[in-house]
Amino acid sequence: MTKLGETLRAYQARDPAARSRFEIFLLYPGVHAILYHRLAHWLFRHNLRFLARLVSQWNRLWTGIEIHPGAVIGRRLVIDHGMGIVIGETAEVGDDVLLYQGVTLGGTGKDHGKRHPTIGNNVLVGSGAKVLGPFRVGDNARIAANAVVLREVPPNSTAVGVPARVVRIAGERVDFADMVDQIHITDPVQKELQALSSRLEFLEQYLDEKYHQEVEETHHETV
Q: Which of 185, 189, 190, 212 is the most buried (most CB within 10 A)?
C-alpha cells in the first residue's frame, strides 16, 4: 500500500485535474495499468509467462496501455491519460517518470537480449514520442512531443525533433515544476534556420541598396 499511496500522491502533484486520491484510484487508467503490471511482472519473474501475458493483455484491453510483463517499472510513475502507450519487454523505467499518451518505448528490430530503452529518474516523455533502441535516457531529461529518439540522451537535457536532436539545459537538474510543458521547447535547428534567414534577408537588402546607389551614381556621371 505504501507504493500505491506514493503513486496516488504523485498523480495529485503532477495532474492539475486530479481532485482526490479516491477519484484517482477509481478512475485513472494509468494507476490501473501500473497495478495490473505489478501483478503481471510478479508472474513473469516467477516463470508463469502465460498468466503474465494474460494479465498484461487484459490490462491493455481495460486501459489502452500495453506494458510487457518483463518491463521493469520504477516508483511513482505517472501516466497522463495513457491511451496508446507501449512499453517493451526489456524496457526499464526509473522513479518519478512522467509519460503522456501515445508514447512508445520500443525496439528497432528482432534482436535478442536488451533491445528497449532504459529511462532514468525524473524524466518526462511527451505525447506521441518514440524512444527506440537499447540505450539510456539520462536522469532529469525531457523528450518533446512527437520526438523520435534513436540514440542516448544525456542527463539534464532535452531531445527535440525527428530524428531527435539533443539540447543541454545548463547542466542543471530539471524539476517537475519546470517539466510540465512538453510542447514549447526550443528547437536548435529552427533557431539556426531563423538566423540564416535573417542574415540572408539582410544581405539581400544590402545588395539591393548597393545596386540602386550604383545606378544613381552612374546616372549622375552620365548627366
A: 185
